[in-house]
Amino acid sequence: MTAKVWGEFDVVLADLDGVIYEGAAAIAGAPEAVKKLQSNGTPIGYVTNNSSRRSETIVEQLAGFGVSAEPDDVIGSGQTAVELLATMIEPGAKVLVVGGEGLRHRVTSAGFELATSSDDKPAAVIQGFAPDVSWKHLSEAAFSIQGGAKWVATNSDWTLPQEKGLAPGNGTLVSAVHTAVGQLPVVAGKPEPAIFNTAVRHFNAQKPLFVGDRIDTDIVGANRAGIASVLVLTGVSTRKDVLGCKPHERPSFILDNLGQLCAPYEAPKQTKRGFKCLGAEVELLGNKVLVTAGDPKSLGALRAAAAVIYNSETPIYGLEVEPALYEEA
Question: What's the pTM?
C-alpha cells in the first residue's frame, strides 16, 4: 500500500456486497483497486455474510471482473455457522438447511446429513439467505425448532444491496421464524466477532484491516473483534449515518470507495474551533456544525465534520448540523 498508515496492516479483509459488487455488477473502480493492492503484495480476503453461494462461484464472479482469487480467500458466514453448529450437535447429525447450495455444501462437507423437512427430526436448523427461500422453508424451520432443534443463522442483515436498490436480507427471514418460535438463533456472521476471528486465523494476520459498507454489521463487527475498520460509501450506509455514529459504531477510516485504499489517507487535523481535512474546514459554533471552508459535499468535509461531532461533548441530537454535509446528491 502506498500510504504509511496502510502499510501498518498485513491483510485487507473486504466485504463483497456493497464494496466489490452490487448483485452481478462490479462497483466502479473496485476491481482495479483490488488488482493494484495485489500487485503491491497485499493479501486480500473476502468476508461476506452471504452464504447462498459456494466460494468457487464467488471466485468465478470475481474473475469475471478481472480479479484473481482462490476459494480459500472467501470467508463466508456459512463456514463460521457450520463451525458453530459442530460445537452444538453430534457428528453426522441431521441438519435442516434453509438457504442456498453454498450452505448445503458447507453442511455436507462437515459430515452432517441433510434433513428434508421437520419430519426427519433434525438436530439443528441452519438458516441463510437464498432468493428462493419460501414460506414453506421458513415453516419447516419453525416446526423443527419447536421440536427441539438447535438454531444457527448465518447472519442477521436486514437488507441486501442489489442493482435496483436495497432488497430484504436474511435478517427479515430470521425475524419471521423468530416470531413463530419465540427465540433467537446463534448468529455466525457480522456483526458477531466469530466470522472475523475465522478470517484472522485463516490468514494468520497480526494487523488486519477490514473494509465494509454498512455500519451496523461491518463496522460494529470489526470494532467488536478489535480490528481496524474502513467504511466505504458505495453500499448501504450514508453520510448521514456516518455523522450519527455512536461510539461503538465509528469506523477507523472513511473512504468514498475502495479505490482510495490505494492512496495516502489524510486524517482530520484539529483547529481552534473544529477540524480540517483535504482542504475543507468544519467548526462547532455554539451548537451548530458548519463548513467554514471547502466543499461541504467533499470527503474532507465529511471526515472533518465527523471528527467535530465525535469529539463534541454534546450528543448528535443536540447539534444542528449543516444539511449539505449529509444530504445525498
Answer: 0.88
In a domain, 70, yes or no: no
Q: Is 240 found in the same domain as 202? A: yes
Q: What is the pLDDT along the chain (329 residues), one digit of tens a residue?
A: 444 578 899 999 999 999 999 989 999 999 999 999 999 999 999 999 888 889 999 999 999 999 999 999 999 999 999 999 999 999 999 999 999 999 999 999 999 999 999 999 999 999 999 999 999 999 999 999 999 999 999 999 898 878 788 899 999 999 999 999 999 999 999 999 999 999 999 999 999 999 999 999 999 999 999 999 999 999 999 999 999 999 999 999 999 999 999 999 999 999 999 999 999 999 999 999 999 999 999 999 999 999 999 999 999 999 999 999 999 86
Range of the domain at 238: 6-49+191-262
| Strand-by-strand arrangement of the 253-255 sheet | 74-76, 44-48, 11-14, 208-212, 228-232, 253-255
Closest CA to 152 of 180, 189, 100: 189
Query: Residue 15 catalytic?
Result: yes
Please answer whether residues 274 and 282 qualify as being in contact, where contact means their C-beta atoms are separated by less than 8 angstroms. yes
132 is catalytic: no
**CATH number of the CATH domain containing 216:** 3.40.50.1000
Residue 9 grid cell:
496492516
In a domain, 63, yes or no: no
